[in-house]
Amino acid sequence: MTHKAGFVNIIGNPNVGKSTLMNAFVGEKLSIITSKAQTTRHRILGIVNGEDFQMVFVRYSRNHQTGV
User: Fold this and answer.
1) How far is CA 59 from the centre of its chain?
2) Judging by beta carbons within 10 Å of its beta carbon (0-12, 13-18, 19+), is residue 48 exposed, middle or buried?
3) Residue 57 in contact with residue 48, Cβ under 8 Å?
4) What span, in angstroms and rounded, lies between the C-alpha atoms of 15 and 35?
5) Which positions ≥6 away from 13 have C-beta within 8 Å?
6) pLDDT for 12-48, tens place per residue?
Protein backbone atom coordinates (compact mmCIF):
# COMPACT_ATOMS: atom_id res chain seq x y z
CA MET A 1 0.00 0.00 0.00
CA THR A 2 1.36 3.44 -0.92
CA HIS A 3 1.02 6.44 1.35
CA LYS A 4 -0.09 9.67 -0.35
CA ALA A 5 0.21 13.22 0.99
CA GLY A 6 -0.71 16.64 -0.30
CA PHE A 7 -1.58 20.25 0.44
CA VAL A 8 -4.98 21.91 -0.01
CA ASN A 9 -4.94 25.71 -0.13
CA ILE A 10 -8.18 27.46 0.80
CA ILE A 11 -8.27 30.96 -0.66
CA GLY A 12 -11.09 33.35 -1.46
CA ASN A 13 -12.81 36.64 -0.80
CA PRO A 14 -13.69 37.74 2.75
CA ASN A 15 -16.75 36.13 4.38
CA VAL A 16 -17.31 33.38 1.81
CA GLY A 17 -16.90 30.44 4.21
CA LYS A 18 -13.19 29.55 4.05
CA SER A 19 -13.02 28.94 7.82
CA THR A 20 -16.29 26.96 7.82
CA LEU A 21 -15.03 24.79 4.95
CA MET A 22 -11.71 24.09 6.66
CA ASN A 23 -13.39 23.25 9.97
CA ALA A 24 -15.70 20.83 8.15
CA PHE A 25 -12.83 19.07 6.36
CA VAL A 26 -10.68 18.75 9.48
CA GLY A 27 -13.56 17.87 11.80
CA GLU A 28 -12.41 20.35 14.47
CA LYS A 29 -13.07 24.02 15.21
CA LEU A 30 -9.65 25.39 14.23
CA SER A 31 -10.82 28.65 12.66
CA ILE A 32 -13.03 31.27 14.26
CA ILE A 33 -16.37 31.59 12.49
CA THR A 34 -18.10 34.97 12.66
CA SER A 35 -19.89 37.36 10.31
CA LYS A 36 -17.34 40.10 11.10
CA ALA A 37 -14.93 40.71 8.22
CA GLN A 38 -11.15 40.30 8.70
CA THR A 39 -11.52 38.03 11.76
CA THR A 40 -8.89 35.53 10.59
CA ARG A 41 -5.68 37.47 10.05
CA HIS A 42 -3.14 34.64 10.17
CA ARG A 43 -2.55 31.51 8.15
CA ILE A 44 -4.13 28.46 9.79
CA LEU A 45 -3.04 24.86 9.20
CA GLY A 46 -5.15 21.74 9.68
CA ILE A 47 -3.91 18.19 9.14
CA VAL A 48 -6.09 15.18 8.32
CA ASN A 49 -4.49 11.74 8.62
CA GLY A 50 -5.94 8.57 7.21
CA GLU A 51 -4.69 5.02 6.95
CA ASP A 52 -2.89 5.65 3.68
CA PHE A 53 -3.01 9.44 3.25
CA GLN A 54 -2.26 12.77 4.86
CA MET A 55 -3.77 16.10 3.79
CA VAL A 56 -2.56 19.48 5.03
CA PHE A 57 -5.20 22.21 4.73
CA VAL A 58 -3.89 25.79 4.59
CA ARG A 59 -6.43 28.57 5.15
CA TYR A 60 -5.06 31.95 4.07
CA SER A 61 -6.23 35.32 5.35
CA ARG A 62 -6.83 38.27 3.06
CA ASN A 63 -3.46 39.72 4.17
CA HIS A 64 -1.61 36.71 2.77
CA GLN A 65 -3.52 36.89 -0.51
CA THR A 66 -2.70 40.54 -1.18
CA GLY A 67 0.82 40.48 0.23
CA VAL A 68 -0.07 43.07 2.91
Assistant:
1) 3
2) middle
3) yes
4) 7
5) none
6) 887 788 888 988 988 988 776 666 665 556 778 889 9
